[in-house]
Amino acid sequence: MFEFSSIWLFQKLAMIPAILIALTVHELSHGFVAYRLGDITAKSQGRLSLNPLRHLDLVGTLCLLFIGFGWAKPVPVNPYALTKKPKTGMAWVAAAGPASNLCMALIGGIFLMAYLRLVGYDWLASSELNAELFFGLFFIYFIQINIVLMIFNLIPLPPLDGSRIVSVFLPPDAAFRYNMIERYGTMILLILCIIPIGGSSVIAWILNTPVDFLSRLIYSLAGLSL
Question: Does the annotation mark 27 as catalytic?
């Protein structure tokens, strides 16, 4: 039992820095693109920062750590301050978060490939809790967490990023009615987390296939088969 608990704790410790980096860069990317498009709201509130404390939501971070998906504090954006049309500008701002996660997952794959060439594969079968295992797990979690954040945020449910992108392609009346769902978005997400399907929740069922596919693809490109 002690050994199991030690390994579990070791895995969570390797996961924490991956979560902090992924969430921070995701939210920073939203704020940075909004700033580049003319909105200074995020900058004025100190959100153009690499300090995780400015971006983390306690519940969302714990959910990502223990449940497998989560969120950070949304970056405030004034769509009417953007140099593009509000709807188009918001789509660019929204897309920046998932795009940053995809870039980080690919960068993580490059680092994992370099790490495997440097230290080999012995740490995968080792029961010793050492630095080689810690960094190996970190790269694996870093890739997967970024993919989870990307796919989760691309779900077209207001207020998730995917809904801002979908809105661009809808007629004004349809977009207005669609975005009205946002007031119920949190409740809908909670329900999707509770309703079971195929041995897991609906939200996990939605995420599992694309997350597993993209994670394994990047792992395999890095030279790791899991």
Answer: yes
